[in-house]
Amino acid sequence: MRAFIVLGHRVPLTPNFTLNDLPGSAGRLDILCRCVTAAFCLSHGIRRDVIVYLVLQNQIIVRLEGSQLRHLNPDERSTAALLQRALKAFADSTHKDRELESSPGIFIAPGGLSDALKSVQGLGLRVYWLYEQGSPIRHAQLHKDGAFVLSDHLEFLPEEAALLEGFPKLSLGPLSLHADHCIVIVHNELDVRFAFPPASQ
Ligand SMILES: C[S@@+](CC[C@H](N)C(=O)[O-])C[C@H]1O[C@@H](n2cnc3c(N)ncnc32)[C@H](O)[C@@H]1O
After folding, report:
1. How far apart are CA 80 and CA 7, in angstroms?
2. How far is the CA of 156 from the centre of ligand 1 (A)?
3. What residue ranges define each of the domains in the chain, with the CATH number in brackets?
4. How does DSSP classify residue 137?
5. Tens digit of each residue's pLDDT (9 = 90 or more) over 41-80
6. What is the Cβ-side half-sphere exposure of residue 136, based on CA atoms within 13 angstroms?
């Protein structure tokens, strides 16, 4: 099992945005959509052993469960429409303290980074902080069941960094990369290490 926790600092908390302006009035929702694609989409299929937590302004968590996910296509716009639908279901709900499922495999609930961290730890996943100045992932000991935390286009806020400080910081290389590219690299690193172990001697 793998999880990715992506922090969306400017994504609106309501569905009142247009799918025609994801990088602008939708607060860089395009980045989160690309992260979802990178986390789940294979050439011909979906990674079912993945969970993505999109933490919106540290107030709402949209959780996508690969094991139950349906209607996910590789383009940004249709993913944004699924997320907008989740925000609409939440906005219309009379029980905003409760999680609800807005479409198969997509859940929305109030919560922030600390809740997402508790959730993945409850699943037994090891948390890793993807951080440009961390230790090189190539030489790091990695657990096959990991939860990786990354930010959108903005730096981690001091309160987020404080929550993450105790976890291993991993660098994917010397350059600052797009968040979705980081997810692809992490998947590849874990695929190579664990999905295709070297044949025993
Ligand atoms: C586009 S970067 C964030 C913006 C960047 N920190 C800046 O200069 O404003 C998105 C996220 O991807 C992850 N990331 C990017 N490059 C990385 C690298 N070389 N190693 C580890 N994580 C990286 C980090 O979690 C980062 O917060």
Report:
1. 16
2. 9
3. 2-195 (3.40.1280.10)
4. G
5. 999 999 999 999 999 999 999 999 999 999 999 999 999 9
6. 4
C-beta of 173 in contact with ligand 1 (< 6 A): yes
What is the CA angle 8-11-12, rounded to 5?
145
**In testing the pocket of ligand 1, which one of 182, 184, 188, 189 has its CB within 8 Å of the most ligand atoms?**
182
Query: Which residues of the chain have a pLDDT value below 50?
Result: 201
How far away, in angstroms, is 179 Cα from ligand 1 center?
6
Does the predicted model carry a pTM greater than 0.85?
yes
Q: Angle at Cα 61 formed by Cα 134 and Cα 81, nearest 5°?
A: 110
Give CA separation, 91 vs 3, 29, 32, 60, 62, in Å.
26, 18, 20, 11, 13
Alpha helices in the chain (DSSP H): 29-40, 76-92, 113-122, 158-164, 179-190
Token duo for residue 116: 């997402």
Q: Give burial (CB, 10 Å; 0-12/13-18/19+) of 46.
A: middle
Query: CB of 132 closer than 6 A to ligand 1?
Result: yes
